[in-house]
Specification:
CATH class of the largest domain in chain A: Alpha Beta
CATH architecture of the largest domain in chain A: 2-Layer Sandwich
Mean pLDDT of chain A: 95
Pfam families (chains A, B): ROK
Strand content of chain A: 15-25%
CATH topology of the largest domain in chain A: Nucleotidyltransferase, domain 5
Distance between the termini of chain A: 12 Å
Low-confidence stretches of chain A: none
Number of strands of chain A: 12
Shape of chain A: globular
Strand order of the largest sheet of chain A: 3-2-1-4-7
Largest interface: A-B, 48 and 48 residues
Protein name (chains A, B): ROK family protein
Number of helices of chain A: 9
Oligomer: homodimer
Chain lengths: ~325, ~325
């Protein structure tokens, strides 16, 4: 019987903290990521949030199997280090998180890439449960991905396999990405780039979006529906870019199912039918159709994945 | 001790036939692929070429471990069938090649995708020999690829994993590819598309290439060197497209080495340094540098790969 786990999901906007037992969240809270100031300054707040949750559940660290962090970036899950991280939490590679975990809680420590953790959650408990070959695409601040092939979570020699779908080149004559690459999926369509994409549009000042200081996809989908031509243009380009990413993930990893998640999927009714149609039209899958599904746990799959991983690590 | 193998490499231009023992070609010949007329009409010629080579070597079918075909397209290596093939040898999915092999030679039959076979050859005997994580990119009539991850040749659930690098979207607003997808690597830069790319250039009639009925990359590289601006433009776009493909393969499969092969690599001195520089500049590999190498056996790696596979299949 598995013990509860402290699971932490370091999102670009909020850091989610949960006491999780398998796929049940016993208690959870979140703090602002305020990621521009890095991770180090956040650790005392995370520690306090964890203690509050433990107290609330009347649990002590002895009742807990371990602590797991789902982090953006490239994560060495063996050495338990952040290797490289794309602007968010930029100080993380220099922090000994395992030591922090031991000093704060005296608990075993696990860390994994956040998209991989989310796919693990969906694979063990959610939409990808009955599949040995699954891919996840996460649309949000950035674009994340992960893959399970032949029943095995893909990590690769240097921990980058599966997770760089957002940095596939889909416009090789395009703009430079945060990561240093050119024409990545993220530079064509993601929340971090959205305001800049909108402002570069020649008709931006005629758009309703010109009144906003920061633009999100909810506004884009809403105003595109209402006939704002700049919003329509951005919506269509973004849907095309995500479809190209999905096709590349399918061509790379040969999955039976593609699970879509991330903050932008709040507008899933605009996204799923489009991507499904483009994949049927364009992906080379002579064997049949890839299932295209919305995540079962859009907000908590990464916490469930870390719960699974921490327990696996302890075996 | 392994027996010799009959290995057949179904290229877009020539069908190569060899009697191969491990990485030694005992005898070989080739016939025109003339692929527009399909594969069925070629089988009697292939059979005759095999018999001639056996006679020449004073071998009978009893001395042979089996017959292996390296074919373009998506290959079900378990059921030993061509599932889907991109215009070349379009009749192949309807042919029972295993039956043909039994009736003609009474030998065990093996079939695999040609880029996978070439990577196997390079992995077992050539440039990728000491690596457990390797990717191959083949530049020729089309663009092929294959991947080995953690010591295992990647095939995937439906046999498409690793081999669709030429059909990664790198220009999501681009043109429709032979495969039905949009903006594939192949539609941006490959020999089948080259003449059409050149003719679409606004300055084509001012170029030396306008005098040719069919254009190849040897001419493009030569005339670009001599200052022909259309050739320069096509060269630069093609190098950018192949670099984007290489970056996507690295982002997808996390290899230690990328092996480049295919007919276009006759101009490798123009290609390798460019791709190497772009990868160093743009690929996200915080662990270090991917080795970028020309194939050890540009003309025969697929034959060696099939020799290895036929012997493995018999064990």
């Amino acid at each position: 019987m598995s013990k509860p786990v402290i699971a932490i999901d370091m999102g670009g906007t909020r850091i989610k903290i949960g006491i999780v037992k398998d796929s049940t969240i016993l208690a959870s809270s979140s703090i602002s990521a305020d990621s521009g100031n890095g991770l180090k300054n956040k650790l005392p707040y995370i520690e306090k949030a964890v203690r509050d949750l433990l107290n609330q559940q009347e649990l002590s660290c002895e009742d807990i199997a371990g602590l797991g962090i789902a982090s953006p970036g490239i994560i060495d899950s063996h050495e338990k280090k952040v290797l490289s991280i794309d602007k968010k939490f930029g100080d993380a590679p220099g922090i000994d998180l395992q030591k922090w975990c031991r000093q704060a809680f005296n608990l075993p420590f696990t860390i994994e890439n956040d998209a991989r953790a989310a796919l693990l959650g969906e694979w063990k408990y959610g939409k990808a449960k009955n599949y040995d070959n699954a891919v996840l695409m996460s649309l949000g601040t950035g674009v994340g991905s992960a893959a399970v092939m032949e029943g095995k979570l893909l990590r690769g020699k240097h921990f980058t396999a599966g997770i760089l779908g957002g940095h596939f080149v889909i416009n090789y004559k395009g703009e430079i990405c945060n990561c240093g690459n050119k024409g990545c999926v993220e530079t064509e369509a993601s929340t971090w780039k959205l305001t800049s994409i909108a402002k570069d549009n020649n008709s931006f000042l005629d758009s309703k979006m010109a009144s906003l200081s920061s633009i999100d996809y909810e506004a884009v989908f809403k105003w595109a529906e209402e006939g704002d031509s700049v919003a329509e243009e951005i919506r269509d380009q973004s849907l095309q870019a995500w479809s190209a990413c999905a096709i590349n993930l399918i061509h790379a990893y040969d999955p039976e199912i593609l699970v879509l998640t991330g903050g932008i999927m709040a507008s899933s009714s605009h996204i799923i039918p489009y991507i499904r149609q483009k994949i049927e039209q364009h992906a080379w899958t002579p064997w049949g159709k890839v299932n295209i599904e919305e995540a079962a746990f859009p907000g908590s799959a990464a916490l469930y994945g870390m719960s699974y991983l921490v327990n696996t690590d302890q075996k």
